[in-house]
Amino acid sequence: MLRLLAGLLLLGCGGLGEASESAQGGARVERLPRAEPWPEADALFRSDARWRGGDAAVSVDLGHERVLWLFGDSFVAGDDTAPRGTRRGTVMVRNSIAIQRGRDPESAAMRFIVRDGPASFFPESGQRWYWPQHGILLEGRLTLFLYALVHDAGDPLGFRYDGWTALRVDNPGEQPEGWRIRPLQVPDVAPIEMVGASVLADAEHVYAYGVREPGDHALFLLRWRRADFVADALGDPERWAGASRGWTRGPPAAVLPRGQTELSVVALGRRRYALAQTLGFGASRLALRLASAPQGPFGDAIEIFEPPEHGRDGILIYGARAHPELSGGELVLTYNVNTLDAAALMDDLSIYFPRFVRVRF
User: Fold this and answer.
1) CB contact burial 116-131 (16+ within 10 A = b; e otherwise)
2) For the chain, how many structural domains are there in total?
3) If both were cysteines, with which of 11, 34, 90, 181 could 75 make a disulfide (CB 3.0 to 4.6 Å apart)?
């Protein structure tokens, strides 16, 4: 339990200061975006009595009205005899997934998948365990990015970050229990230590945002030729090196000097991009930064939503992510709610389920 709570410190630190109502240096803002809670959609994450909550809540469009959800540490009841209304008697696995059918969360169906045990869907490798980042489906092949952690008694948090990996699923149209999953060879792109926080593609390239971690959470951007990416050739990506140097295979420049380990960048159309994030750590608010290109420059953070949990004592709000494949709003976001009170986490089922937000521009 303590490692989950301490993990929030790893994921959430690196605050971005106060939000701004402007977007200097980014895409033009015609109207300030605003967001509203979407409680009717929240029921999607509570549709399986055995799945008692998880964080991360990363989504990947699988096509044909199917959406893959990736979760981090998740509470799962071993069987139907586990007490209801609590997380006591459940098992916390390192990661879990779900398949959503239908694009509108209010009417969609969700099936959660956890390996027998219960056990993590992406298994541990020796002492390493995996938390999900983002992914993308291209030409019938699904690529998923994960990052690894290991126990470290000498670290104040009890563990440390231990690299990243990419997995390829060659048959994503089948049920996840039958997926053929294989690791891809990935390059050393230091100082970008966590690759895949958000992934998107255009007609020519695939882009992956990465974070310097541990450290200041500076945000960087890699890209591959689309054909190379589909052909498993991830070994030689270009790095964005700033406006003066452009794309290079030399040292990169930060897209944002201080970012976060959990965020999303999505295309809004007409050369407009939005970066979704939380502001700071703890009782955070949700914000967007706008840009006219994947590499930015991204404008000032525009605060769009104060979660209703914001005023509760001891509450942590983190991990804002965008889900452009979902319908029901001009842009759909989720965020995570947690607490550093271990007893409250076990007994309060009003938290540790992702929450939906609808954005209007």
Assistant:
1) eebbbbbeeeeeebbb
2) 1
3) 90
